[in-house]
Amino acid sequence: MAQIKIQQKIPMKAFKAVSDQLRSEGIHIISKATFARGEVKSDETRGRVVSAFNLGAKIALDVQSSFNCSESRFEKLGDVYYLVTK
What we know:
alpha+beta; 6-stranded mixed β-sheet; globular
């Protein structure tokens, strides 16, 4: 597990939705290309977000991954949030 901080400020309402999804079904990490295509298959995920803490202009994350996702952002695709990496 890795601990990272991303530079993203999101409204509290949106962060509540992220937190609710994190508790219920989890948040997957995907690439920018997968997000742009608009369809996410289970074998295209790069890991999972374990926890997220809103620090104002930054969000602290614990992730299950073995790569650097510090340049990532939470993005919504349909009704589901993903952590999208560059």
